[in-house]
Design goal:
The structure holds two protein chains of two kinds. Chain A is α+β, with helices and mostly antiparallel strands. Chain A has helices spanning about 15-25, 35-55, 95-100, 115-125, and strands at about 1-10, 65-75, 80-90, 125-130, 135-145. In chain A, a hairpin with a 2-residue loop joins β2 and β3 (about 80-90). The radius of gyration of chain A is 15 Å and the shape is globular. By secondary structure, chain B is of the alpha/beta class. Chain B has helices at about 20-35, 60-70, 85-90, and strands at about 1-10, 10-20, 45-55, 75-80. The chains are: A alpha+beta, B alpha/beta.
Chain lengths: ~150, ~100
């Protein structure tokens, strides 16, 4: 079994809940455990929040603030899971290793934990971050579900 | 996100109900920080998370923010009843070293 979906949303915080709930609903045919589903929701929320809070911080044209979500679920040859790609065309990240390190935040005065990437990394099986300053950022998340979640 | 406050025996209980993310945190923050000023005879605050259906890392920043805000009044803060998913986020954030669980 394989299925794919694409979603394009404006980078507005009201869409955080919409994005994570939509991806979670899309993953349901995999029969994920409640805890795996909650991990997926949380990771999507972190990725989308990053794009909203950081990527388009300096963008004044509201119509340009777009976030693209792609997801693919698969259940083949005894392996099942979900790939999620979150893309923005925002300001990009100068130093990715620094950005993904725990507790690192560029917004000290705003009660930000600096734990977004750490949560994505911990809650998912794999996380890849590609970014180019001035061009945007792409975060690829993979969650492999356990055999016993069949 | 609904927030309600209740005072019992010198303890201020803060009940959060709903989803805590970057979108909902700002209102909850404003509400709590202004409401807490009405309680002058409390000696500690307990933030009850039993009805938090979803929380991402915004919650870590939010809780540390309340810890810092309440510290100005000399009020220690505790966390009560996180569900399993909330607990997982809070453990990764190392938050219980600062705000103990009751």
């Amino acid at each position: 079994m394989k299925n794919t979906m694409k979603l394009e949303i404006l980078a507005q915080s009201v869409n955080e809940s919409f994005a994570r709930s939509t991806v979670a609903a899309f993953a349901l045919p995999l029969n994920p455990s409640l805890s795996a589903l909650s991990d997926i929701k949380t990771a999507v929320s972190e990725g989308v929040t990053n794009a909203i809070v950081h990527a388009y911080r300096d963008e004044t044209d509201e119509d340009k603030k777009k976030i693209f979500l792609e997801a693919e679920i698969f259940d083949e040859k005894g392996r099942k899971g979900i790939h999620i790609v979150i893309t923005d065309h925002g300001k990009g990240i100068e130093d990715v290793p620094q950005a993904i390190s725990p507790f690192y935040t560029t917004l000290d005065g705003e009660e930000r934990s600096g734990m977004g990437f750490t949560v994505m990394q911990t809650f998912m099986t794999d996380m890849q971050v590609e970014s180019e300053p001035g061009k945007g950022t792409r975060v690829t998340l993979t969650k492999i579900l356990d055999e016993d979640e069949r | 996100m609904q927030v309600s406050l209740q005072e019992r025996g010198g303890v201020l209980y803060i009940f959060l109900d709903g989803e805590l993310d970057e979108h909902t945190a700002a209102d909850a923050r404003r509400y709590i920080d202004s409401a807490v000023l009405k309680y002058t005879r409390i000696n500690k605050a307990v933030i009850d998370l039993s009805k938090v259906a979803f929380m991402d890392s915004t919650g870590i920043g939010f809780l540390i923010g309340r810890y810092k805000a309440f510290r100005r009044f000399g009020l220690p803060v505790y966390i009560a009843n996180p569900n399993r998913a909330t607990d997982k986020i809070l453990l990764i954030g190392g938050i219980y070293a600062i705000i103990p669980k009751v």
